Amino acid sequence: MIASVLPTYNRAPLSFVSGEGAWLTEADGSRYLDLGAGIAVNVLGHANPDLVAALTAQAGKLWHVSNLYQIPEQQRLADMLVEATFADTVFFTNSGTEAAELAIKMARKYWYEKGAPNRTEILTFEGSFHGRSTGAIAAAGSEKMVKGFGPLMPGFVHLPWGDIEAVKAAIGPDTAAILIEPVQGEGGIRPMPDADLKALRALCDETGVLLILDEVQCGMGRTGRLFAHEWAGITPDIMMVAKGIGGGFPLGAVLATEDAASGMVAGTHGSTYGGNPLACAVGARVMEIVAEPAFLAEVNRKAALLRQRLEGLVAAHPEVLEGVRGQGLMLGLKCKVAPGELVKAGYAEHLLAVPAADNVVRLLPPLNITDDEIAEAVLRLDRAASRLA
Ligand SMILES: Cc1ncc(COP(=O)(O)O)c(C=O)c1O
């Protein structure tokens, strides 16, 4: 008999009833150190008092109004995002997938309105992940995600990761946009080198092709800058955000320049819940905390500490681990064993990490993890790796 919850997930036999900071607790009181943070979602940890206060204050006033009306919390968060980034305008969604859908629509509508309705093609990269909608799986294109779900939305060209020459060769008269994660998450914590991001920006400037960055996983302070592309000193035309921006409350967004968004006039897109007052009240509080230079400086300091200790761990377990990669607190441990095995061994040590492709275990702790918790995490990872030796 089928499970009452559709069995699309391979769930671990763990069940948490409460959380505090970087810790999750099961009903019997056992505590787990969370280096997954809901897959890069709980940027300020679990049950963060500031976010609880923002949510409960809003919950006592107003939960939901339609986008038929002005929503002051939405306006406030949009203003903050515009102020802090390249963007001139923001559309709020409930998830990263919905942000992907709008980014694709926005790029195509841009060219349609510019009198080039043929420019619909979007260049994407192997190993990428943009969500699970029919559009987002077509965009990423991996066999694992698309098999059995055809016919797929046409108009995506899949290129080898990091191959700038292939991008140059693929840009043609029908190209609308390039869509890329500055740091691939699900693909195994693969950062696109700054020089390559710069080269993509230059190609887009030369050809008019729009640059869409998917910062759903790598954005919101995760790499030590508010958004990962800032390290490369470039800006996109359109950017997808989700996960961390809500700190655990479902929220996503598409940020865009005025020009890139010019086709999206009244009636062209909408969402019942997108930009909901509860989500935006929490999102604004997340922004107030995470966008602070002093907060981001701490992320970078802690990232250096964690990385250094992880390098030591790799040296201590050459039969299990091959290397560390990533940026900020978006780190990957490249494994010589199946990553699922290390994650399972972590469970036995009451440590949560997340497997990814390319034989990598992802470490995506809350951005406010403490130095002591970093030390404790590395101890537990050390014991987990010893279990596999
Ligand atoms: C880079 C990236 N884009 C898009 C998504 C989809 O986001 P969501 O699961 O919120 O729909 C994810 C989720 O893992 C992601 O990592």
Automatic annotation (TrEMBL):
**Record key words, sorted:** Amino-acid biosynthesis, Aminotransferase, Arginine biosynthesis, Cytoplasm, Pyridoxal phosphate, Transferase
**What is the top-level taxon of the source organism?**
Bacteria
| Residue numbers of N6-(pyridoxal phosphate)lysine PTMs | K243
The record's InterPro entries line, in alphabetical order, gives: AcOrn/SuccOrn_fam, Aminotrans_3, Aminotrans_3_PPA_site, Class-III_PLP-dep_AT, PyrdxlP-dep_Trfase, PyrdxlP-dep_Trfase_major, PyrdxlP-dep_Trfase_small
Q: Which GO terms describe its biological process?
A: L-arginine biosynthetic process
What name does the UniProt record give this protein?
A: Acetylornithine aminotransferase
Q: Which organism is it from?
A: Frigidibacter mobilis
Q: Which NCBIfam families match?
A: argD (TIGR00707), PRK01278.1 (NF002325)
Main enzyme class: transferase
Instruction: Give a single Pfam family match.
Output: Aminotran_3
